[in-house]
């Protein structure tokens, strides 16, 4: 069985890394980004199944990323 890939987009690095690690421990394949632009790039480069997205990002609003 292939693990679901989750993209975490959060400008707080500790929160982004912590959540990504918790997801890995729960059996998910996770990656994270600290900005909306990086989140969009990672979403395009990787086949992600879900995105956990912060709305208040430094470069753009989370709704714009959506």
Descriptive tags:
alpha/beta; single chain; Rossmann fold
Strand order of the largest sheet: 2-1-3
Return the CATH class.
Alpha Beta
Radius of gyration: 11 Å
Strand content: 15-25%
Number of domains: 1
Q: Estimate percent helicity.
A: 40-55%
Q: Uncertain segments of ≥5 residues (pLDDT<50)?
A: none
Shape: globular
List the helices and strands and how they pair.
Layout: E1 5-9, H1 13-25, E2 29-33, H2 36-45, E3 50-53, H3 62-65
Parallel strand pairs: 1-2, 1-3
Q: Can you put this structure into words, describing what you see?
A:
The chain is of the alpha/beta class and 66 residues long. It has a single domain, classed as Rossmann fold (3-Layer(aba) Sandwich), CATH 3.40.50. It has 3 helices and 3 strands; from the N terminus they run βαβαβα. Strands 2-1-3 form a 3-stranded parallel β-sheet, with helices on both faces. β1, α1 and β2 form a beta-alpha-beta unit. The protein is globular, with a radius of gyration of 11 Å.
């Amino acid at each position: 069985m292939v693990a679901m890939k989750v993209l975490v987009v959060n400008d707080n690095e500790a929160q982004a890394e912590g959540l990504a690690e918790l997801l890995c421990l729960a059996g998910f394949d996770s990656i994270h980004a600290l900005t909306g632009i990086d989140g969009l790039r990672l979403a395009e480069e990787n086949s992600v199944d879900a995105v956990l997205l912060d709305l208040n990002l430094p470069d753009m609003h989370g709704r714009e990323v959506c």
